């Protein structure tokens, strides 16, 4: 078992690759009274076109299938996985992102029983045509609810108006027609292709004995038989740096207009190394964050009721979105654009936010769920798909001059503005 030392934080994460190919990460803290275990699949909503080793043609499955599979995989013979974990007094759930699917369980007791049952139900599919059809009704209703949710609609409308080809413009849950078209054969193909230990990883955090926990997982997995891994190849999609629409206006269930100014920046201009990512985060927090002067001025002058920002990496591009709720959309859009044209960060603000970020790294290790999610993010989103064990060092070594250099590289030539106005009362 390999020990990964988290530099500067006195934390240790244990790692081992099992003979079946499953990567296992363990973190222990005896001061915590609970545990959090996740079993994660490197398969998300964007992976709808793929081919297997030795194949020439790509398979294409409906959008939304990753989320659909997450739902139906809770079915077991005679009931659902919830029935098992309810008896153990544990909480189970799952989620699907653009990039991966995660099944997780948390509790305070019966760790080994929980681990065994998590591994058993995820790796023992129970797919029946009737269950698939039943699930379609449930997920269709979920999709319909999303159509009435202004936050959800605005989120995907921004992606739709920013992305030409990248599959992140498609809803994770899929459209109504996508859900209707999913078949048992599609589900089986995706499960057989991607739900293999070599394409998965497990993270267990909290008040655990790492050696006993690893022994439990190894014993469970040794009893299972897996077909040969098919080494799926995801179809690569080229995404240009231009936006689809420079301006779009829709109506929705909002009391006052929502606006979003979306910036699409080529990663050839903004590097993706951890240090550059941190520099960009500090710049965005300084200009649009909760304590930023710009945000406070807009709120104090009653121009907005809320303002926030987000950042998403989309292969060769980085999407930066500044969103606000406002009665004065034209004025606020103009002010946000002006701010993007004059981004700045003072040395004092840089040092303060740098110290606050380092402090948050320390506090992160007080919560086993946060640690678990942080490990997942590192594995999925870091360039080498490994834990960033030197993140504190990166923060400490980052200089003000490096942040200013990153600031110069932010290209604001590709902007998409999206506005959602209230529906007119008939």
Describe this structure in words.
With 426 residues, the protein is of the alpha+beta class. The chain is 41% helix and 23% strand. It is built from 15 helices and 17 strands. The protein has helices at 65-72, 81-88, 111-122, 129-147, 150-162, 176-181, 184-194, 210-222, 274-288, 293-300, 329-341, 347-364, 368-381, 391-397, 400-408; strands at residues 2-6, 11-17, 23-28, 35-41, 49-51, 59-60, 75-76, 79-80, 91-96, 101-107, 200-206, 233-234, 247-252, 258-266, 306-314, 317-325, 415-422. A seven-stranded mixed β-sheet has the order 1-2-3-11-4-10-9, with helices on both faces. A five-stranded mixed β-sheet has the order 13-17-14-16-15, with helices on both faces. Strands 6-5-12 form a three-stranded antiparallel β-sheet, with no helix packed on it. The mean pLDDT is 95.
Q: In brief, what are we looking at here?
A:
By secondary structure, this protein is an alpha+beta fold. It is 41% helix and 23% strand. The strands form four sheets. The protein has a seven-stranded mixed β-sheet with strand order 1-2-3-11-4-10-9, with helices on both faces. A five-stranded mixed β-sheet has the order 13-17-14-16-15, sandwiched between helices. A three-stranded antiparallel β-sheet has the order 6-5-12, with no helix packed on it.
Strand content: 15-25%
Count of beta strands: 17
Low-confidence stretches: none
Provide a count of the helices.
15
Structural class: alpha+beta
Largest β sheet strand count, sense and barrel closure = 7 strands, mixed
Distance between the termini: 66 Å
Cα Rg:
23 Å
Amount of helix: 40-55%
Principal-axes geometry comes out as globular
Q: How are the strands of the biggest sheet laid out side by side?
A: 1-2-3-11-4-10-9
Mean pLDDT: 95
